Structure formats: structure tokens, C-alpha cells
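Recap slide: Golgi SNAP receptor complex member 1, sequence and predicted structure.
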Amino acid sequence: KQARQLENELDLKLVSFSKLCTSYSSTRDGRRDSSDTTPLLNGSSQDRMFETMAVEIEQLLGKLTGINDKMAEYTNSAGVPSLNAALMHTLQRHRDILQDYTHEFHKTKANFLAIRERENLLGSVRKDIESYKSGSGVNNRRTELFLKEHEHLRNSDRLIEETISIAMATKENMTSQRGMLKSIQSKMNTLANRFPAVNSLIQRINLRKRRDSLILGSIIGICTILLLLYAFH
């Protein structure tokens, strides 16, 4: 029970640890692409969280190792049959799980450290680039502003063109719908003109059915009376 509890806790911790490392990488990439003035590394909170989670996972791995050692001592004790296959299978399964969790933890930790080291190396390079940009003079700043304004104008033109194309498509769609409505209206008028003739035909059919029912009922009544007269005679 203790081994299963620790394994479940380790599984949750490792999932959270892997998500933290993934979010660390994606956050750095997003900051790198978002703005030139954003610092490359300002994730001290993520670093502290990484250290805390790493310590917690190492402690849980140590506890699980101790539990596995105790189970191994129990299976090797004199009071337990040496040929108990179920106990040996259970112990081997817990050892495999511990080995997998340990490998996954070290792999995720190594990936995180590699990403952080790479970002630290790139940080110094970007700081040099930013210092060069900031010290290059007012002309570069104006040129940069002009380029951004030009990009904004291009985006506005693109949005206007997209709006016009949507309006044209809407107009064509409404025109086609109007044609469909006209055809439906003409069909409805045709049906309305034909309806009196159909109604009269239905009334005739109903009258004929009533007449046939009366005739059939009369025949059945006469036959019944004749049978009764024949039975009593």
C-alpha cells in the first residue's frame, strides 16, 4: 500500500514537473518572439518552482527506494517461502516502476537544465544586441517607428480587403437566397391554385366511402336477419 501510494504521488508530481519544463520552454520562446525590449530571462519564480519540485520528487524517490528495499528484505527473510512467485513478481513490478520514474525524472531535469543553460547563453547575446540598438541613435529609432507604422498600414489594408470580400460573398449569398425564396413562393402559389380541385376530389372520395359503408352495413344486417329467421324456423 505504501509503495502504491508513493507511486501515485510520484506520477502526479512527474506530470506537473514535465508541464513546468514545457511551459518554461514555451514561455521563453514566446518572450523571445514578442518584443525586442522584453528581458529574455525573468522566470525566477519558475526556477524556484523547478528546484522545489525537484527536491520533492527526489525525496519521494528515496522513500520509494526504501520501501522497495524493505519488501526485498521481507521476501528474503526465513519465514517467507523462497518460491513465492507472486511476491517476487510484485517486487519486480515495483522495482520496474521505480526505475521508470527515476529515468523519467532525470531525463526531464536534464532537458530543463539544458534549456535554461541555452537561454542564459542567448541572454547575454541579446543584451548586447539591445544595447547596440539603444545606442545607435535617434535615426534608427525613427526608422524603426516608420517601419512599424508601415506594417500597421499594411495590416489595415489587408483587413479592409478581407471585409470587402466578406461583404461581396454575403451579397451573393443573399441574392441566391432571394432566388430560392421566389421559386418557393411560385410553387406555393401553384399548390394553392390546385388545392380546391384536390379538396373536391377528397370530398367525393369520402362520400363514396360513406355510401359503400352504408351499403355494406345494410347487406350485413339483412343477412343477419335472414339467418336468425332461418335458425328460429
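The CA atoms of residues 85 and 145 lie 76 Å apart.
The chain has four helices and no strands.
(End of recap.)
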